[in-house]
Amino acid sequence: METKMVNDNNPSDTLIEYVTVMLGEQLFGLPISRVQDVFMLERLTRVPLSQPEIAGVLNLRGRIVTAIDMRRRLGLPKRDDGKKPMAIGIESKGESYGLLIDTVGEVLKLSDSTREPNPVNLDGRLARVSAGVHRLDGQLLVVLDVDRVLDMGEAIAA
Amino acid sequence: MDDLLREFLTETNESLDVVDVELVRFEQDPNNAKILDNIFRLVHTIKGTCGFLGLPRLEALAHAAETLMGKFRDGTAVTGEAVTLILSTIDRIKAILDELEQNQEEPAGEDRDLIDELERLALAAPAPAADPVIAAPPTAPAAAEETSGSLTYQVLERPLRPGEVSLDDLERAFRETPGPKFTAPAEAPSAAKAAAAAAAAGERDDDKTDAKVANQSIRVNVETLEHLMTMVSELVLTRNQLLEIVRRHEDSEFKVPLQRLSNVTAELQEGVMKTRMQPIGNAWQKLPRIVRDLATELNKQIELEMHGADTELDRQVLDLIKDPLTHMVRNSADHGLETPAERRALGKPEKGTIRLSAYHEGGHIIIEIADDGRGLNTEKIKAKALSSGLVNEAQLEKLNEQQIHKFIFAPGFSTASKVTSVSGRGVGMDVVRNNIDQIGGTVDVKSVACAGSSFIIKIPLTLAIVSTLIVEAGGDRFAIPQLSVIELVRAQTNSEHRIERIKDTPVLRLRNKLLPLIRLKSLLKMDENEIVSGDDAENGFIVVTQVGNQTFGIVVDGVFHTEEIVVKPMSTKLRHISMFSGNTILGDGSVIMIIDPNGIARALGTTATAQAQSEENGAVQHHGGADNTTSLLVFRAGSPEPKAVPLSLVTRLEEIDATKIEASNGRRLVQYRGQLMPLVRVNDEVQIRTEGTQPLLVFSDDGRSMGLVVDEIVDIVEDNLNIEVSSETPGVLGSAVVKGHATEIIDMGYFLPIAFEDWLRRKDKAVGSHVSRSLLFVDDSAFFRNMLTPVLKAAGYQVTTVPGAADALEVLKSGRRIDVVVTDIDMPGMNGFDFAQAVQADPATKDLPIIALSALTSPDAIERGRAVGFHDFVAKFDRPGLIAALKEQTALGEAA
Questions:
Q1: Where in the numbering of this chain does the Response regulatory domain appear (chain B) (predicted)?
Q2: What are the residues facing B744 on neighbouring strands?
Q3: Using one digit for the tens of pLDDT, what is the confidence trace for B373-402?
């Protein structure tokens, strides 16, 4: 991300659009360029023996999508309000993923120049997938690096 | 690769395959001008194209072959020699084509050898009546002229086959090609090379992995077809979903158009499937040639019949069965069919027949390879199965002929006594079965001695769409491919089928067989939070599944229906889970995981413990076999470390009421089957119990029994009995690794005399004053060596064991004192009869008594045994008989 910023024509003015999502009390932002769609989660099929972060697989318009439980991925407690989760559809290396989140917020246009690096004391599990922090009015937005979210390590040799 | 060259390779290879077949037909029917014309035209086309592309080596070869065939056309008699020569020329052309395909360049080299031969034959051919002068000088121009002459008048009697170029097309190609290529033909390949070099290096790799370009006779890029197939699969799934939705809304206006869409989709699916279908004849094309060559090589007369060559199956499946088919036809020709002389003697026609047939049967293709030869040699297979440790005698006795025949599919199994260039290299039917397994097929064998054998291959029509059984486990649904499902059994607490347990391992009694069970829920770790109640543990649906030769039951909570599904690859995040082979979307739109029976079989293999089953007579029997292993009874006595004894020595396992143990004269005894049976402890640490039940290993011999007191009987396992550390402790032979644990192997020979002080002495009396006589025991089966050695030792012999006749002769030659020899008859290498003859032939050992052990004790065999010098003949399981015979023989030796 750092290098990308330098390579841009006018680094100070680069605006990146983020889809904002809520997980617990925290606001996160996903670069809109990586977001394919947002959908309500229906009929999830559990996959036994899979990694705990994998919530299951689902059918999204004829494609099989692997759903990732973002709360687990970020080490957050289980959701207990009983509401149906939403999912952010993402594509990576020809495969479809759905990131399960609590709610989707608005789309924010933020200048890359105001993005700050992770605070050094950020929780390790968050820091690993975070590409920096934006200070907004009254709250902080943690930018998620999609590729790092999906890189869960190929647990258990095939 | 250059497109032109690629086309050429594909076409030429196909044409050559046709030439192969046609030539064999032609040899049988030399007067059929039509066939000859056909061949001639094909070779001519190849020649022409080669010249056009600037491939001088190929052109010269094709030309020489064409010249010789021209002679046939002119009426020269067709000889087998000439046909063989042309066939080998075609082989050479194929070899050059292969290299051409890899390097995009004609390999350097000369074909003078073949060309000279071809020319010699063409020359030697008597001139066809009219004018000898024209035919005599077989100079190239003359021949070429001759052929080009015939070309003009060539009339095709049939439509063009794929891979053939009509002459018009060829003419046009010649005309349209710019001049320079004609004058400098060598440019073509170099142009091709340049083009290839320009292409990314990666493409080269693609070319190599991409099967053989030349073998694909579909002119549409296969990838395009695959993609089309995927898209249609998607369409089918979407259609299914739509139908499901409309079903819920009774009078939807979508109903009619959807019905239409549904029909069109079905037709489209069928159409696309068809493009992937190819007649099985494509896989058979090479067989007539192979059979002809085999017939020549083996001096047999073989007729190859082919039925149902137009039966179509999926291209992918076809590719995978090509090699197994070829292998099986070779097998039939080599092993199956007898030589003409043998056939005559049996009253069969001299010419043996191999019949290939293919037909559809309920979503499967059945391919049969049958011959009218000698059939499988059951005895040979038995002996081989025994010697390679696949089964033991006891198991073998229970098998019927058909089950025995199935051993030929075991890895490394070949009964061919001599290795020919055709077969008998030990990589045989197991490879065939693996290939067929891969595509979810099965292979079976039926054989009738002297009447022939037939192999039946059953394979699915296509791999893309699979019929599955939808089951439920732990609240989720799963799909199990139906191909591996044999039957469904409903298990209930009070019914005939009930899930039983052996030490926590669930099993099912199914028609006298013990089926290992695995609960899908536990296998998939979906039952972590629940405790299986007793009732639940005995109930469930059991999907009896077969993978290879492993049969097991998968216990599920419910069974729904069968559904045709389109297998979709799993996400890379899930691919490490070996229990699933893929996933799919069902008609109702939900995603479902597809169970991989192979993965389950593997999981079962690692968790499975050997199972023992007590039968009515109380004897312990072991199910399942392994390579070269001995059944061992593992128990604990005195210490937590396991101890073991070969199961074959144990007569019974008993648990007796501890209160029945009596003491008399300082010894512990128990009344057992009307006799007093002495009890012996394995060591001093073992406590003889005073209450509850006391486990015992009962050893019986000669009407007397002793009980060995142990703490706990642990298991019966199959493992290699390989004593690695010998022991000083009396009663312990040493330590061996049994199922991963260091285990003491108990020496029964030590305990028998403790129970009955005269146990050995009684025998000694009979044997004579020598306490130990030395005995040489020859048997190729480790099992029997392990079983009989302690018995022989207990009878007072010093036993030397060797695994084969050759080793035995060495021991005898070494000058060691051997008083008597006990030998097996059926052994690989030198058999017992030959061994006996060899012993008799040596003056130093000619009086040595030899006792034969054999599974067959027919009067004939005994007679034959006596003739070659066996002193006695004992059935393999007749232990008292063997001891008696030994007594008799050694006593005679004493007297002599």
A1: 774-891
A2: B643, B735
A3: 888 888 888 888 888 777 788 878 877 887
Does the pLDDT of residue A27 top 90, yes or no?
yes
Partners of residue B487 on adjacent β-strands: B544
As a whole-number percent, the residues of chain B with pLDDT over 90 amount to 3
The C-alpha atoms of residue A10 and residue B881 are separated, in whole angstroms, by 102
3-state DSSP call for residue B250?
coil
pTM of the model: 0.42
Contact by Cβ (8 Å): B254, B311: no
Give the Cα separation of B256 and B253 in Å (integer): 7
User: What is the per-residue pLDDT for B618?
Assistant: 29
Nearest CA to B322 out of B444, B439, B463, B482 is that of: B439
Q: Is residue B231 within 8 angstroms of chain A, CB to CB?
A: no
- Give the separation between CA B379 and CA B831, rounded to whole angstroms: 14
Q: Distance between CA atoms of B811 and B778, rounded to whole angstroms?
A: 11
Interchain contact B227–A (C-beta under 8 A): no
ipTM of the complex: 0.85
- CB-closest option in B474, B476, B576 to A45: B476
**Rounded to 5 degrees, what are φ and ψ at B87?**
-65, -40
Q: Do A59 and B590 touch (CB under 8 A)?
A: yes
Q: Are B567 and B581 in contact (CB under 8 A)?
A: yes
Rounded Cα distance, A28 and B155, in Å: 77
| CA pair distance B48, B59, nearest whole angstrom | 8
- For B:515-554, CB contacts with A below 8 A are 524-526
Contact residues on chain A for B589, CB-CB shorter than 8 A = 43, 59
Report the chain B residue with the minimal C-alpha distance to residue A94.
B571
One-letter amino acid of B243: L
What beta strand segments (E) does B702-747 contain? 704-709, 712-719, 723-726, 732-738, 741-746
Cα atoms in the 13 Å half-sphere on the side-chain side of B862: 7
CA B339/CA B26 separation, integer angstroms: 24
Distance between CA atoms of residues B475 and B521, nearest Å: 9
Residue B643, strand partner residues: B635, B744
Contact B237 A62 (CB under 8 A): yes
Q: Domains in chain B, please, with CATH?
A: 3-215 (1.20.120.160), 222-276 (1.10.287.560), 281-460 (3.30.565.10), 465-607 (2.40.50.180), 612-755 (2.40.50.180), 760-895 (3.40.50.2300)
| Span B227-248, pLDDT tens digits | 887 788 778 777 877 877 887 7
Q: Give the CA dihedral B375, B379, B383, B386, nearest 10 degrees.
A: 90
List domains and CATH numbers for chain A. Answer: 2-150 (2.40.50.180)
Q: What one-character DSSP code corresponds to residue B333? A: I
B579 → closest Cβ in A49, A97, A155? A49
Over residues B419-453, the pLDDT tens digits come to 444 444 344 677 777 777 767 677 888 888 888 88
SS3 state of residue B503: coil
Q: Is the CB of residue B580 less than 8 Å away from at least one CB of chain A?
A: yes
> What residues form DSSP beta bridges with B851?
B822, B872
Helix orientation angle between B879-895 and B759-767, rounded to the nearest 10 degrees: 40
Average pLDDT over residues B32-37: 78
DSSP codes joined into one string, B400-421: -HHHHHGGGGSTT----SS--S
Distance of CA A99 to the CA centre of its chain: 6
Residue B827 tokens, joined:
């052994």
pLDDT at B855: 62
Nearest CA in chain B to A57: B591
Give B210→chain A minimum CA distance, Å.
22
Q: Which residue has the tokens 């990314």?
A: B200
